Amino acid sequence: MRKAKLERKTKETQIKILLNIDGKGKSQIKTPIFLLNHLLEIFSFFGLFDLELFAKGDEFHHINEDIGIILGKVFKEALGDRKGIERFGFSYAPMGEALARCVVDISGRPALYFSSLGPKDLNFQIKDSKSKYSLLDFKSFLEGFCQHARITINVGLLQREDLHHQLEAIFKSLALALKEAVKINPLFKRRVPSTKGVLD
């Protein structure tokens, strides 16, 4: 089983996380950001990752960003030496009228690319009685994740209307892409999937 457990305590946030990459998609998630809870459940379910995550803190932005950071760290630790993995993964996922594409490379070179997003798109927010969330918030979360998991992530929104649907489509396509990328390919025979022989 490829799994890891981490705890992060700062003056701003307290987060505990347990991740099993070779799981069944079970999750227990409790954070003050209600929509992010739902999106992380989607990530767990469609990636077949078992995820336990508990977070609290003093400010929305800090909690959101720190959850991305610790999820990236625990993902990298759970993967270990990355020998035998497919390394690449991609997926399309629709949600209502929204359509998202995600392509990932577990390369050791962290980078995040969002296609076709301007300032107006990034700052548009979902607001309800319990939470708010925008594509800019999601981008901050995902930047923390990819930097600390050391993954290249390319996200494209091909059809857009409802922001909630856009975020769900992105999380589903990300989970499905990562599920493919972490699979063990028996033809690699425990080799690191790089012509260099290492993934830094």
- The domain count comes to 1
Beta-strand portion reads 25-35%
CATH fold name: Ribosomal Protein S5, domain 2
> Which CATH first-tier class would you pick?
Alpha Beta
- The assigned structural class equals alpha+beta
The helix tally amounts to 5
Q: How many E strands?
A: 10
Main β-sheet, in a few words? 4 strands, mixed
The radius of gyration computed from the alpha-carbon positions, rounded to a whole number of angstroms, is 16 Å
Account of the protein in words:
- This protein has 200 residues and is of the alpha+beta class.
- It has a single domain (3-188), classed as Ribosomal Protein S5, domain 2, CATH 3.30.230.
- It has helices at residues 34-47, 60-79, 119-123, 135-149, 163-181; strands at 3-9, 13-20, 27-30, 50-57, 88-95, 98-105, 111-115, 125-127, 132-134, 152-159.
- It has a four-stranded mixed β-sheet with strand order 1-2-4-3, with helices on one face. A four-stranded mixed β-sheet has the order 5-6-10-7.
- Helix 2 (60-79) runs parallel beside helix 4 (135-149).
- The longest helix is centred in the middle third of the chain and has 20 residues, at 60-79.
- 38% of the residues are buried.
Short synopsis of the structure:
The chain is of the alpha+beta class and 200 residues long. 36% of the residues lie in helices and 31% in strands.
Feature tags:
single chain; 200 residues; alpha+beta; Ribosomal Protein S5, domain 2; four-stranded mixed sheet; 5 helices; 10 strands; globular
